[in-house]
Structure formats: C-alpha cells, structure tokens
Amino acid sequence: MRELTELIDVEDPAWPELRETVNGGRVPIEVLPPDSDLARASLLQLQVTAGSYLGAVVLHSGGLLIDHGWVRVFGSPEGESEGSLPSLARVNRFPEPYDSAWHPAAGLVVAHDVLNGVFALNGGNPAEAGCPGAPGDIIYFAPDTLRWESLGIRHSAWLTWLVSGALDEFYADLRWPGWQDDARALSGDQGVSLFPPLWSAEAHQNISATSRRTVPMTELLGIARDTCRQLDGTDPGLLG
Fold it and tell me: Which residue has the higher pLDDT, 132 or 129?
C-alpha cells in the first residue's frame, strides 16, 4: 500500500496536461469543482497516482460533463446530493474507511452516458469477469446491444478521444434532433429512457420516432441489467 503523499507528490502530475487537453476540446466541457477530502480518500482507495489521468480527474475535479453533459466522467464532486453528479467512489461503492483488501470485481466504472451506456476500466481477468479486451482497456456497455465491448484504448487515450469530437460518430445512430437540449436539461443523476427501447428493432430503424422521458439513472441501469438476465441469462455485473 502506498501512502497518500506518495500518490499525490509525483514528479510529473497529469492535471496540467489533462487541463490543456480539456481546454482544447472540440465539444462543450464543464469541469466540476472537487471536494478535497473525498478526492484524497478516493485516491488512497484506488492506489493510483496524480501522475495518471485517472488520478488527476479524481484529485482535481468533481467530474467532467462532456458534450452538453451527454457523457459524465466521474470524479470527486463538492456537495454530493440528490440531483448532483455522483462521485466515482459512490458509483463504484468504495468502502469507508479505506480497505486495502477491496478492489472492483471486474472493472472500475469511470463514466455514464445519458442513455445508460457505461464506460469502465477493465481491471481484472477478462475471461473470469466476462469482460472483453485486456486488463487496462476501456470497455463500454452499449445500451443498444446490452453487451460489453472493448474500445481497445487505455484511460488517458479514452479521455483525449472523448473531447476530440469523436462522439458524433460514436453515437451517430443513437442521437435524435434536439438531443443537446435534452442532455443539458438533465440533472447529474438522471438519464433518458426511450420507447421502444434502444435494443429493439424499431429503435434501430428510426431513433427519432421513439418516445423519451427523464428517469433516474439508477432505474435505467437496473432495467438494463434485468433485461440482460431475462433475454439470455447473462449478468453484465456492476453498472454503477
């Protein structure tokens, strides 16, 4: 176990580089203010340094709202409460106080999108955990297929990709006219429920024809997990 000072006091902290990347992003990005105590406790539990992009986000931000809030990257937010963006610690159910024996069963959930898509860091044995790709890859639980898929990139490259403008292509078939206003209107713990659901043939044919309503993100994630179990008996694991 590394002490907190070892994790924070590094020769090459990642935050200045990451902040420059965010400031140069091609999509709207909001950096939320961090809670210092929560940030330090989360960094200690993660055992990652401030020299990594993951450590920098946790230590120096309350989270990142990317592309009008369509993607929410979790950090250590101030005043965490109902309606606010949850913390990385809350989403992943960090123990309190610090527990050196704890680690995510399959991976660490690092972001959600408004459709209940889940980005996670594959942190375990892929074959054992049922996650695609290699340990350290960013994987994505796709709401239109209800399957995990590997993006084939590491966390730092993934954050750079998020702000590069690539989301237009990634979500090309999952966005409707006016999605920007809908995303901005959501609170940090809400998502968009579509009917027919995204994984249905009807939604695939015409996303604009679906009806949409705002629901708690926990409800969306619970429905996705239950649907996976009902359709093929597969449990996708913790979605946050």
Answer: 132
Task: Check residue 27 and give left, alpha or beta (phi > 0: left; psi -120 to 50: alpha).
Answer: beta
SS3 62: coil
Structural tokens at position 4: 């907190």
Residue 163: both structure tokens together: 């702000």
d(CA 220, CA 59): 28
Model pLDDT for residues 96-106, shown as the tens digit of each residue? 888 888 887 77
- SS3 assignment, position 157: helix
Provide the whole-model pTM: 0.95
Burial class (CB in 10 A: 0-12, 13-18, 19+), 25: middle
Q: Could you tell me the CA-to-CA distances from 238 to 1, 91, 136, 139, 221 in Å, in that order?
A: 25, 9, 17, 13, 9
Cα distance between residue 183 and residue 92, in whole Å: 23
Say how far apart CA 183 and CA 217 lie, in whole Å.
13
Residue 218 has what pLDDT?
95
Per-residue pLDDT tens over the stretch 23-53: 999 999 999 999 999 999 999 999 999 999 9
Segment 180-198 mean pLDDT:
96
